[in-house]
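for the writeup, i need someone to sanity check this before i put it in the appendix. the sequnce is what the collaborator sent (i think, or maybe the updated version? ugh). structure was predicted straight from it, no edits. if anything looks off just tell me and ill rerun, i have time this weekend
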Amino acid sequence: MKENKGRARSSIGRRRSGAMSREDQRIRVAWFYYIEGLTQNEVAKRVGLSRPLVNQILASCRAEGLIQIRLDSDISSCTRLAGELISRFGLLDAVVTPAPAHPENLARTIGLQAGFYLSDQLSHDLQIAIGWGETLWHSLKGVERQNLRNSSISSMLGGLTRYAEISAYETATRLADMLSAHCYYLAAPVYTDDAKTRDLFVNQPMLQEVFSRVRSADIALCSVGQMDAQATLHRLELVGEDDLADLTAHHAVGDLLGHYLDAEGNVVDCDLNSRVVAAHPADLRNIERVVLASGGQTKVEIINAVLRARYANVLVTDEETAELLCEI
């Protein structure tokens, strides 16, 4: 069974409440076994069934040829959560995936679904803007290779000073290669030493061209970072302890495109934001379809801020995050 058979707005994670229907049960068992790669013992513990019953369900799915059909259907509790998110935040669309059995797989799970979603939007003459980070790197695994005519990929952030797979350059380059599209970079560090240097970079004609391409994009794919030491920007030593202290003092709840926002989605007036080389979050409002792919309890505040400020109109997240967002 191919991994991309799991694309679906409905998903198969833990239900919010009530008994699990037989069909929903079969979907969840198939997802955890075929998509997440759990063993039958792990699946049994995850869904609260015996191992022999899990084996029986998998065997019946294979015998009846229903595995692909079931994973492509829209019947699970995640569909209801997606509908709630669309209604609550006024979104164009929402995709809710199961909460992974192992928390370390969260970025992979959400990223994969974001890649499936992006694949469904692809066409010729398409201009795509993309951010960077672990989730977006994993999203590339879900993108179907195509030869798109007259299409381009534009990076929305500056890059790193050392190699990392999740960097803006690597993410944009790989996606462009997969789609046979032209690629445009913000050839500058994501954060400069001071605001004056930042202004010198962003006023360069070649960077202004990229900013213009981002603003005129047909679709954008981005993620957000939380406000703690586990955030990607902090782990890559782009944001230090002093920066975090300053951001906390300015009531920041996380970042979008390297810009730190408060709970209302406003870009806070702090030193770090004056040094960032990236498209401004407000530029995203001009793009027809902006896909935010992110999840996890530590990111609920920043996801909520981004959606409230209308920077994104499509959300790809996990079931547990969706539940928390619907309860805010």
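The beta strands are 93-97, 127-130, 152-155, 182-184, 219-222, 224-225, 254-256, 259-261, 289-293, 314-318. The first helix runs from residue 22 to 35.
thx in advance!!
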